């Protein structure tokens, strides 16, 4: 599936990984919201954890078709996301996100892997308001 990406941390415009990974590879970037999730502070980057009642702010990134496969592989590597590996920090999941126009878009989202999410719920520091940029 060639879904857009919902990014909420260091891949957002103005953050260090935006230019490193997304510059020249995107067709569209627009503000978006991920309902049903909250943000936790990590070591220099956030983790989205699926949890009812919260909303995470970010951007919906549509990749250029010719750059899609390369970008997907690069983001999986950046996010330490190896499908099926329980040691991964994140897992890539397809979720409905809300675009700037209020419409719903299906997008890939990197959320905290189950073991990481459990640790964060027990001992993590919640980012109030769900916006990494406002938190920083």
Automatic annotation (TrEMBL):
What keywords are assigned to this protein?
A: Acyltransferase, Transferase
Family annotation (InterPro entries)? AIG2-like_dom, GGCT-like, GGCT-like_sf
**Highest taxon in the source lineage:** Bacteria
Pfam families in the cross-refs: GGACT
- The EC number on file is 2.3.2.-
Specify the Gamma-glutamylcyclotransferase AIG2-like domain's residue ranges: 5-133
Name any one GO molecular function: acyltransferase activity
Protein's name according to its UniProt entry: Gamma-glutamylcyclotransferase family protein
Species in which this protein is naturally found: Streptomyces caeni
């Amino acid at each position: 599936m060639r879904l857009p990406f919902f990014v909420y941390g260091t891949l957002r415009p103005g953050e260090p990984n935006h230019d490193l990974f997304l510059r020249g590879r995107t067709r569209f970037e627009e503000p978006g919201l991920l309902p049903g999730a909250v943000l936790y502070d990590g070591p220099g980057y956030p983790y989205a954890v699926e949890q009812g009642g919260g909303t995470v702010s970010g951007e919906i990134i549509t990749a250029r078709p010719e750059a899609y496969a390369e970008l997907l592989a690069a983001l999986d590597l950046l996010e330490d996301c190896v499908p099926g590996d329980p040691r991964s920090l994140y897992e890539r999941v397809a979720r409905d996100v809300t675009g700037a126009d209020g419409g719903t878009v299906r997008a890939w989202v990197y959320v905290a892997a189950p073991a990481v999410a459990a640790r964060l719920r027990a001992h993590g520091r919640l980012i109030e308001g769900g916006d990494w940029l406002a938190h920083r």
